[in-house]
Specification:
Length: about 400
């Protein structure tokens, strides 16, 4: 009888797994393993594989590949190719998962299905270059993609018993919901924009620690090759914190953290280094133009306007700073009505368009872009508007770091 009782007690113990943590520890374990998956996605798949914005030690890369096989079943080539295609066709026809194309509900609730629909041999061949093609990738991770997640299920059940199935389900849903849904969906639907890049990307939250720093989506789409996704002083990218930790341990090295540009106080010459620096930093230049030229003058005009005219100015700042490709017909009518009420705002808006045209010359002759910048500065300085004069002086202070200066 004692033997039977002992066996039943042992069997009951095994049923609940070999580890018997508290309920709180179940939650901690779940958060830890899901965050490891997020780190693997943002550092390895995203910043390293898709954009090559950093280097990773071979040991770390192999760990991330193995962990992603266990927790997502996602292959490096497929994820990399689909993400690169997203950047090549952002928010237009052909984007694998844009809420602008498919609608926010489709991306939020069927983001994983959109990924699978885009995982074609044609896309992998075109956009998946430079990804692992070793024996392990071909004969284990790709051939037995379901084997990893099945192994993770077995591990969780052995550790925790039946509740391990719930933990496993959370792990399996984490990337489809948080990355494929929230980042790809809300990140192109709601939030704030630091930069007016040519798509609908937005920063979901300024303190990006829950989804690996990917919440700073507008920053990423503006500077996709930057290993650091935070740009404002009050923004935080936990992915960058992980990179700094791995760098300290000799396991990572960031290759790019944004545009190659610097400002030299008192510099007043416009040369080819100025043109190169401005071209590299053009999104920040346009953001500064909105903050230092458009915003104060809109406020001034608003304060001086009568009650009826003030209604026209209420959305003036957002309209005048918006990327031209994102302005619809209704907004263009409002802009026309707005600038017709103020010669000063009309000049500011026209010079904004003229400055944007300068960047269009970056693929041509460098001297052509340089001449365009000089002409813009001259037009700004003769406008009679102090904010434009000050901004012209700021543009002249731009140059490239010494290591990149023209010889």
């Amino acid at each position: 009888m004692d033997l039977i009782s002992a066996f039943l007690m042992q069997a009951d113990s095994w049923y609940w797994g070999i580890w018997h943590p508290s309920f709180a520890m179940h939650i901690v374990y779940t958060l830890v393993v899901t965050q490891i998956t997020i780190v693997a996605v943002t550092l390895y798949l995203h910043r390293y594989s898709a954009h090559r914005s950093l280097r990773l030690h071979a040991t770390l890369k192999h760990f991330f590949r193995f962990w992603l096989w266990l927790t997502t079943g996602q292959g490096t080539k497929s994820w990399t190719a689909i993400h690169r295609k997203h950047h090549a066709t952002t928010d237009v026809e052909g984007d694998p998962h844009s809420p602008v194309v498919f609608g926010i509900k489709a991306v939020l609730f069927t983001g994983a299905e959109l990924y699978r629909a885009s995982d074609t041999q044609e896309i992998r061949d075109k956009y998946g270059r430079g990804t692992p093609e070793d024996w392990v990738e071909r004969y284990v991770y790709e051939r037995f993609s379901f084997g990893g997640v099945a192994s993770m299920l077995l591990i969780n059940i052995v550790l925790f018993g039946p509740i391990g199935l719930t933990i496993w389900a959370v792990q399996m849903m984490w990337i489809p919901v948080m990355a494929a849904g929230v980042i790809n969906g809300i990140g192109h639907y709601a939030g704030y924009r630091n930069f007016e890049c040519k798509d609908a990307s937005k920063n979901v939250f300024p303190w990006a620690f829950f989804i690996g720093g990917e919440e700073l989506h507008n920053n990423h789409h503006t500077y996709p090759n930057s290993a650091k996704l935070s740009f404002k002083r009050w923004e935080f990218d936990i992915g960058w914190a992980w990179i700094m930790l791995f760098k300290y341990l000799g396991l990572a090295k960031p290759l790019s953290t944004g545009p190659i540009a610097r400002k030299v106080l008192g510099r007043s010459v416009v040369d080819i280094d100025t043109a190169l620096a401005l071209m590299n930093d053009r999104f920040k230049v346009m953001a500064n133009y909105a903050d230092k030229v458009i915003a104060p003058n809109v406020r001034q005009e608003y304060e001086n306007a009568d009650k009826a005219t003030r209604k026209v100015y209420k959305r003036a700042l957002n309209l005048l700073r918006r990327e031209e490709m994102l302005i619809d017909a209704t907004a263009r009518i409002r802009i026309s009505q707005l600038v017709d009420t103020s010669p000063m705002l009309k000049t500011i808006y026209e010079l904004k368009l003229q400055l944007q045209d300068v960047w269009a010359k970056r693929s041509g002759n460098g001297e052509e872009m340089l001449d365009a910048i000089k002409q813009w500065c001259l037009d700004a300085e003769t406008s009679g508007i102090q904010a434009l004069l000050d901004f012209s002086e700021e543009l002249k202070s731009y140059t490239v770091p010494v290591a990149f200066a023209a010889k």
